[in-house]
Every structure is written in C-alpha cells, then in structure tokens.
Amino acid sequence: MKRILIALAVLLAVQVADAQVKTPEAAKKAVESAKAAAENPKKAAKVATWTKLAKAYMDAYDAPTGNLLLNTPRVQLEQMMGLKKALSVEEVVIDGTPFKKETHADKVLYFDGSDVLRMVEVTKPVYEDALAGALEAYAKAAEVDVKGSKIKDVKDGIKSVAEKYFAAGMDKYTLGDFKNAATLIGKAANASETAPLSQADTTYLYYAGYIHMQGGNYEEAKNYFNRCREIGYYAEEGNLFPSLGDVYMKLGDEETGIKVLEEGFALYPENANLLVGLINYYLPKEGGESQLLNLIEKAKKAMPDNASIYRVEGDIYKRLEDWDKAEAAYRKSIEIAPDAADPYIALGGYYIDRGNVYFNEGQETFEQAAYEALMEKYETMCISALTELEKAFSLMPEDATFKKDIANTIKSICFVLRNKDAQYQQKFDEYNAYLNK
Fold first, then answer.
1. Which of 140, 157, 174 is the last residue of a domain?
2. Quick check: 96 and 154 in contact, CB under 8 A?
3. Are 220 and 179 in contact (CB under 8 A)?
4. Where do runs of H (alpha helix) occur along 45-122?
5. Within a domain: residue 382?
6. How far apart are the C-alpha atoms of 334 and 388, rounded to whole Å?
7. Within 10 Å of residue 219's Cβ, how many Cβ atoms?
8. Lesser CB count within 10 Å: N end or C end of the chain?
9. In the predicted model, is pLDDT for residue 14 greater than 70?
10. Residue 343: which residues within 8 A CB-CB, separation 6 or more?
11. Contact between residue 390 and residue 379 where contact means Cβ atoms under 8 Å apart
12. Strands, E, within 104-215: which ranges?
C-alpha cells in the first residue's frame, strides 16, 4: 500500500491543540458529498462548490493524523488527544538518529529518545492522493470565479497544497526514499505554478532536481534544474551549475555539460565544484590547459578585482606544476585582498605542496650532497608556508570554521622544523596549547 508521509511541522503549525479534525470516515463522506454537488451543473457554476470540495479533500488528507501535534510529549498525546495503544513497537535508526517506531492501524508514529513525537507516517490514507483532488478543485474554482471575488482564498489553498506536498517529500527524503521524495516535491513545484497562484517556487524546483539527481533519475533532474536556470535561480554560490553540468555528463551530453560549467564559472569563479568539474574535463584533453586558462583570462577581464579568480589561476598552475606562475597568481590574490585569510591559506598550501616535491625527490636520491640540498629546499618551503599560514591564522575570527585546521597544520610544520631553531619548538608549544584549549 502506498505510504504517505505527513510533515506535521508544516501541516499543524497553526493548529491549536483542541482543533477539531474529521475522522477518516467523516472526511471521506464529506468528499463524496462535495463531489456529488460538483457534478450538478447548476452548483458546478459556483465558486463555493469547488472550494468546498477542495477543503474536503484537504481534510481527508489530514484526517489520519487526527489532532496529533509534532514535538508533543507522549504523555500529553495520551491525556489530551486520546492516543491509543500501538499495535507494535520497535527501535529504529533514521539518518543516524534512534527513534521508537510505533505502528497503529492507519499510521506509524516516531518518538525520539525523550519520548517526544517527531514524525507521523500515514499508512492508510483516506484517498491515495487527496492533494491532487484538492488542487484540481481549486483550479476549477478559479476557472468559474470570473469576477475574481475569491481569488485570494484560492491562491492560499493552492499554496497550502504545495506546502503539504513539499513537507511529505522532505520526510520521504529523510527516510532515504529518494524516488518518492523527488516525485512529491516535483508535485509541490507543479502545484505552485498552477493558476491562479502561478508562482515558480525555486526551493521546490531545485530540491526536486537535486533529489532526482541523487536517486540517479538524471533526465528528470535535468528538467527541474533547467527550469531553475530559465528563471535565473542558481542556488547558493551557483551550485546549480555544477549539478546541472554533472547531470548532462551522466546523460552522455558532454558538449552541453561543459557549456553549463563554463557559464557557471563566468558567474561564480570561486565555486570549487565548478573548478573541479572544469579541471576534470579539460586537463586530460590535448590543449585542455589552454582552454582552462582562457576561461581564467576572461574572468579576470570581467572581474579584475576578484581575488578568488587569481586563487583559481594559482590552483591550475600548481596542478600543472608551473610553480612560478602559480606563486605569482597567489601573490596577486593577496595583493587584491590583503585582509582576507583565504589568499594566505592558498599560498601556504602552495609552499607545502612545492616542499613535498623536494622532499619526495630527496627520498629517491642516493647522493648525500643532493639529498641535503633537497632537504634544505624542503625546509625553506616549510618556513615560507609557516609565514603565510600564521598570517591567515591571525586574520581568522575565533569561530572561523577552519581555524583549528590551520592551527593544526602550523603545529605540524613547526614539528618538522623543531630541530632547526628553538623558535619553532616554542611555536609548536603555543599552537598545541591553543588546540588543547
């Protein structure tokens, strides 16, 4: 039997504890009565007939949950809302969190470790897709409302349908059911675009595409992502572009996929996922380095004061082991943004990587003089890295996400240099104390 998840956080946010919810039997009877009225030609010409039918379907959708309120302790559910004894109880883990799963005749309840209700899963709905019936009725109400007297009520009703679809989809997603999650959220997007609401909801569209992508349904993911692209919604930091580009690649359309990545890079050159996608595509190809660097040059001309572009350029040259040009690009990034930590972190990482090249070469040589020369270059790179990373550390606020990681890297470098000079042992102790604190 199809299982419909009800997200009570959305559905019951404005419902008071003593609100009256129809029983499933009463809700079904109300729908049948409203449907009969809608089949009467005279009544079918009235807006109220269709809004009543839509409301009846909405009540039918809510009926199996009764008065149950999310985030309510079990004792209150039993005392105030007449919660009956479960047919069975078992311990389950959902997304790493333990729950007590209680199965009832028409629903499953999920309680957390504090015995608080967190989710309700309806297993015996009054109708398999009551929301579809409600949406159709609201659309019909708008059609017969030639004067637009009830347009606001109809819009609010359609918006509520979309919200319920989205909430149900997100619950499916939490349970790892990507297929049904994406389908439900897609229905939320379609509902939101239904006239007279006619709103392209970017959250619904993007989530539908993203979850379809996670579930391997790339064709559907492409459609939803392209809808976002058409209306100018690119997600946080432009993450629509690497996702859509990857979808095209998965579908075997490399030509369109790379165009999407390039389009995104022109708008969001600091997006790491876009850069990785472009590097993975171009570098294995003959002349691919030139293509990448041409993109960088275009980005620099369009945004000459964007330090991120020069960091990206440095990353590309570093990957190509063109060390001098990489260092120059990183230093240009610092010149543009001297008070930002990121450029110093990038340059510090550059010195670490270059130092590792000298270190690895040293391990492969059997000549003592050559070994010592390479180790000297390695230590010089370590000292340079230390200088840049300490600058970055000093610029980062205490709550910065990566500050402890930078401190740990500095500590590791100081450990390497501890026998070279007493100052490095002192720095090691200082940063070790910081990390322990």
1. 157
2. no
3. no
4. 47-62, 74-80
5. yes
6. 10
7. 10
8. C
9. no
10. 307, 310, 311, 330, 333, 334, 336, 337
11. no
12. 107-111, 117-122
Residue 250 domain flag: no
Output the six-digit token pair for 417: 């240099």
Q: Is residue 296 part of a domain?
A: no
Does residue 247 sit within a domain? no
CA–CA separation, 117 vs 79, rounded Å?
14
3-state secondary structure of 420: coil
pLDDT over threshold 70, residue 7? no
Name the residue among 39, 1, 111, 118 with its Cα closest to residue 71. Answer: 118
Give the Å distances, CA to CA, from 229 to 192, 222, 241, 278, 397.
Answer: 17, 10, 9, 19, 35
Cα-Cα end-to-end distance for the chain = 55
**Number of helices (H) and strands (E), helices first, in the chain?**
20, 5
Q: Which two tokens stand for residue 229?
A: 């692209």
Rounded to the nearest angstrom, the gap between the alpha carbon of residue 203 and the centroid of all alpha carbons in its chain is: 10
Q: What strands lie across the sheet with 107-111, from one edge to the other?
A: 4-6, 117-122, 107-111, 97-103, 88-94
pLDDT of residue 20: 60
- Bridge-partner residues for 107, per DSSP? 122
Domain that holds residue 129: 1-157
Residue 104 has pLDDT above 50, yes or no: yes
202 vs 267: CA distance, rounded Å: 19
Residue 347 has a pLDDT of 97
DSSP track, 190-237: HHHTSTTT----HHHHHHHHHHHHHTT-HHHHHHHHHHHHHTT---GG
Q: Has residue 420 got a pLDDT over 70?
A: yes
What is the crossing angle of helices 254-267 and 288-302, to 10°?
30
- The amino acid sitting at 26 is A
Total domains present in the chain: 2
- Residue written as tokens 């294995």? 284
Domain endpoint, select from 133, 157, 181: 157
pLDDT at 273: 86
398 Cα distance to chain centroid: 26
Higher pLDDT pick, 398 / 20 = 398
All residues at 6 or more sequence positions from 342 whose CB lies less than 8 Å from its CB, including other chains:
307, 308, 311, 333, 392
